[in-house]
Design a protein that fits this description.
Helix content: over 70%
Structural class: mainly alpha
Shape: flat
Number of helices: 7
Largest sheet: none
């Protein structure tokens, strides 16, 4: 199993899927992989932007449809939710693009935008622009960071096989130990019955 081959073969799909739910770490790793020559930088940016855009679009639609029901469950944060919705109404363009960069708003931001009744024809282009800017920024950070992380990743690839064998050996020992303990208990229960 060569991790570089796996990254080269499935990296773009993993970036799209990974950035739908959680973006920054996946995007940084994509930038590192581009620095290592395993993936192409422009395709990493497009993959991550696509995944981030899809994730936010789904959350936005969820917010439009079920947002008020979802937000009612967070009654203790009602003041903060109202504040965010006021900000969305005042500065929708900045909020849609900027919510990707606000800590803690990656998931709740698009939901709040959906509940604010911002029209889809406004949200979609802003979502695309925000996703591209976000993907370009974090992929570039990962690419630049690849200079530092690159040598470590090379050593990591060499140690992966050893770790897998070590983990398998530990699991085997634990299973054998559990099986022997189970047999011993069975024997003891038979001897007490006699």
């Amino acid at each position: 199993m060569d991790i570089n081959h796996l990254i080269s073969q499935y990296g773009y799909a993993a970036l799209v899927i990974g950035s739908v739910a959680e973006g920054e770490t996946i995007t940084l790793l994509g930038g590192v992989a581009a620095h290592q020559g395993l993936l192409r930088f422009p395709l990493v940016v497009l993959s991550v932007a696509l995944g981030g855009m899809i994730g936010d679009q789904l959350l936005y639609l969820l917010g439009r449809r079920y947002g008020m029901k979802i937000l009612r469950r967070f009654s203790r944060h009602r003041a903060k939710i109202h504040q965010a919705q006021t900000l969305i109404r005042r500065h929708p363009y900045l909020f849609v693009i900027g919510s990707r960069f606000m800590y803690g708003f990656r998931i709740i931001g698009p939901l709040l935008i959906g509940t604010s009744h911002l029209r889809p024809k406004i949200f979609l282009p802003l979502n695309i622009i925000g996703a591209i800017v976000w993907a370009l920024l974090f992929t570039t950070l990962g690419y630049v960071g690849g200079e530092v992380i690159g040598p470590w990743l090379h050593q990591f690839d060499q140690h992966v096989k050893r770790w897998i064998w070590l983990i398998l050996a530990v699991v085997l020992v634990l299973c054998l130990r559990g099986w022997l303990r189970h047999r011993r208990k069975k024997r003891q229960s038979r001897s007490t019955e006699d």
